[in-house]
Known about the structure:
The complex is a heterodimer of chains A (672) and B (365).
Chain A: H1 2-6, H2 11-77, H3 81-102, H4 108-136, H5 140-227, H6 241-324, H7 329-360, E1 368-371, H8 372-389, E2 393-397, E3 403-406, H9 408-429, E4 433-441, E5 444-451, H10 479-489, E6 493-498, E7 504-511, H11 536-543, E8 547-551, H12 555-567, E9 571-575, H13 578-587, E10 592-596, H14 605-615, H15 617-622, E11 624-627, E12 646-648, H16 653-664
Parallel strand pairs in A: 2-4, 8-9, 8-10, 10-11, 11-12
Antiparallel strand pairs in A: 1-3, 4-5, 5-7, 6-7
Helix pairs in contact in A: 2-3, 2-4, 2-5, 3-4, 4-5, 5-6, 6-7, 6-12, 8-9, 9-10, 13-14
Chain B: E1 2-5, E2 18-23, H1 26-41, E3 50-54, H2 64-75, E4 79-84, H3 88-100, E5 104-107, E6 122-124, H4 129-140, E7 148-153, H5 156-171, E8 178-182, H6 191-200, E9 205-209, H7 212-225, E10 230-233, H8 245-248, E11 253-256, H9 265-278, H10 284-303, H11 307-316, E12 324-325, E13 330-331, E14 342-347, E15 354-360
Parallel strand pairs in B: 2-3, 2-4, 4-5, 5-6, 7-8, 7-9, 9-10, 10-11
Antiparallel strand pairs in B: 1-3, 11-14, 12-13, 14-15
Helix pairs in contact in B: 1-10, 2-3, 4-5, 6-7, 10-11
Amino acid sequence: MKGMLLRPRSLRESMLLTSVAFAVAATILMGMFARFASETRGSQTESVAMLREEQRIAEEIVSGAHEQQLDAFQYLQRPAAATLDAFRTHGARVYEGVNRYLFRDMPLESRLRVETIKEAHQDFEVAAQRAFDLSATGASAEAHARADVLSTHISVVESAVRSFVSTRQNQRDAQRALMESRLHRVQMATAATALLIVALAIAMAEILRRRMMRPLTDLSGAVRQLGDGVGSVRVARQHYPEFQLLADSFEGMAQRIRSSRCELEERNGELTQTLEELRRAQQELVQHEKLSAVGEMLAGLAHELNNPLAGVLGLGEVLQTELALSSDVETRALVPTVVTPLVAEAVRARQLVRNLLHFSRQSEPQLESVRLADAVEVGIGLRRHMFAQEQKIITVDVPSDLTVVAQEQKLQHIVINVVNNALDALIEGNGSRLRVAARRLGDDVVLQFDDDGPGFREPARAFDAFYTTKVVGRGTGLGLTLVHRFAQEFGGSVTAENSGARGARVTLHLRSAARTSGADCPALAPSQPKEPSSRNGDVEETQLRQRVLVVDDEPALRQVQRRYLSAMNLVVVEAANGVDACVAIAAAPVDLVITDLRMPGTMSGQDLLEWLAREHPLLAERALVVTGDISGAALAAIPSLTPDRVLTKPFDRAEYEHRVRQALDVPVGAGA
Amino acid sequence: MRFVLLPLAAACGSREPIRIGIVLDGDGIHGATLAAADINASGGIDGRALELRLAGGQTDNLARNALAPAESLAADLSILAVVGHTNSAASLSAARIYNANRVVQIAPTSTAPMYSHAGPYSFRMVASDRHQADFLGRAAISPSPRRIAILYVNDDYGRGLRNEVVRYLKTHGVVPVYEAPYSEGTRFTGIEGVASAIVASRPQVLLWLGRAPELILLLPEVRARSSGIAVLASDGFGRPPAGDLAIAVQGVRYVRLLDPGNSREAVQRLRSEYEKRWQRELTDQYLLAYQAVQVLAEAIRTSGPDREAIRTYLSGLGSTRAPFDGMLGPISFDANGDAPGQYFLLEVPPADSNLVANGVASASP
């Protein structure tokens, strides 16, 4: 209860209470009016009717008394029983009339007047009876003399009746005056009450105006401010809980609008950024699609070119070696003038074919954690001599602790390609400096190549396949395209742009391996530093008298390999297919099998390897595979085959010899 | 107005006493006072003392003198009921006041027929004179008198009784040879003329419908003129006067409302105490006042100290509830508040009264 009293009334409660109060007040007022009017009317009507009735009774009493008087006079003149009966009948009427007063409500004074009437009438009747008695006893004169007495009695009766009527009239007048006085008081009270109600109504209206209109004005202003973009809008504390709730709701709404606005701006920024990224991704996608289409076409072409090119190059190198040993001067002179350029062109063709195959490669890269400084150093190391020769400066600023998600060989390829491009640009554009720097940027590592050459003619086309601005014969138009491909395979990106008035900038964004946990990228494995073979010096001795079986359906390639292997002082056994190879091995043990994978006939290279694994496991473990597919798609079918047992066509003689020595370094078992 | 707080009331503690008003004269006051004393002596009404408020002290029979006490008592809300008044005219005159104020009035001895219509709050301990008129009329024409003179007091009592007696006589073919009203007290004049007129009408029976004092004055004058007229008086006669005055009314037969031979122990005790104290015969007024207080006390005890509850109780006696066993016998009221009546006819002897006849009136008209 106390709580209810202390709790501020709600607007609804206040209005309800006000309405009830006014309704009650109005009802009371109307009730007072109605009741008073009814009472007044009823009282006055009743009073008038009662007075008329009493006057009528009074007239009957007076009339009856006068008739009795006449009867008495008549009886005294001539006594007769009928006259006496009439006297008594009229007397009874008077008596009855008086008694009708007896049972009416009237004040004591009036009631005493009634008793006076009754007594006067009784006295009259007794006096009349005395006169009758005198008359009956013969005292007629005395009896007649009593007539005056009777008149006096009748006068008393009449006077008593008039007195009664007058008293009643006075009482009625007094009552009317009382009623009028009461009416006046009630009118005054009603008027005062009406004024009070009006005053209360005005007061309540003012209170409601203050407590309703002001909050509404406040809220209206606040809404306007909010609409005008005012950041922080506050509404004053309100009296009524409803308005306070409204104000709280409004402030909450304003707060949410502010938050939404900030969020909207933030999202707008994000959207802009996303749009930018989308645009870039779209460009990359277009680039990727273009490269894919070209790559598919080139892949088949490269495969077809690979075998003849391998023969040309291999035989060229053989020719170059053998001519150099010729005793004929003219013959030897052919080496620098004919054979060496021939081999060089074949090497360039081999590089072109390899680039084409790289370009068309679709397989998933085997990503690993690569220390960026090592990859950069390998790539740059191959060209540092050229920079020095061309008197160009190359500076490297790559922190040694940066590791990236990449495939080491391809990352080296990226560095070599970019550096080659830069060197060519510096030479052609008379630039002097290439700066290679790397830094951590969030979860990424940025590797940046800046030169002061002439810059890109069309930066947007820098990564297009076969787009080159180099002189004819200097570029294949695939270097930066492969850079772009490899960067994408690593989950990174590359951009080309011109920096300032002079110079080009190639920026690689690579994922930092430091951020990637083992769970996220289980395939990653730290690359092991390459250790040079400590047994290279012993190879020649162990290779003496060792037999190598070369299995290839291409006679030119068998011949090239025979030349290479013979030069390595190895005994070469040749087989044109898998079946012949099996026969050869059965005929005489060999120390090493070098087999082409794709061979016509009933037994391919893969079948041969499987046969070896069953029949000569140790020989199978060291067998080398020759393939023109550098993408590794064919090799993927032979899980046991490690990369160091693969010889790619066309051969790089040094690599070939290295692989062979590496394979023969493995001791051959007794069964071999 | 004075109060009678009876001695034993003090034993009832400090609780507010029960008050009833009394508007009676001598014997009525004595009877009521004794009843209250007896009630208080037996523990009062639910432990509360019964207090009588005596109003008026009316010694005449004028109705006008009943009005002021009635107004006073009715206006006093502590008064739960009133026992009064002395005669029919006074009771009738005051009845409207009591009924207007919704306070019960019990008239001990008022017999006027008109009192039956006085109102729902008006009760009486006796029957209407319609019954006494029959009793008187029968006595008047028995064994066979045909000349009857009637003298009646010209008030509500006398006129009412006269009308009823005349009605009865007419139904028996008797027309009074003389009828005359008279006024009481100092207004009772012309006695010789009245006596002469009565004698001149040669009645066999003089029917006196009034009180004793005027008859005491009139009867010697009548007998001086004619000695053969038997006198028959209504209950207004009361008890015979004592001493020499009794000689004037010797041989008058009169009506008593109560059985003078009531052998109830309480009645006998009262009679004995009364006669011992006052050296005169016990009156009906005394006993009926006593019994009126007694029945009111029972009404308050049963229904509570509330005016309306008292009325409800009384109106139900004999109808919705059993009659109250009062000192004189069972008490009940009919729809008009009238009690059933018994009439006893006595004669004034030279030395004492002897019961000569009695009759019983029905409670219903």
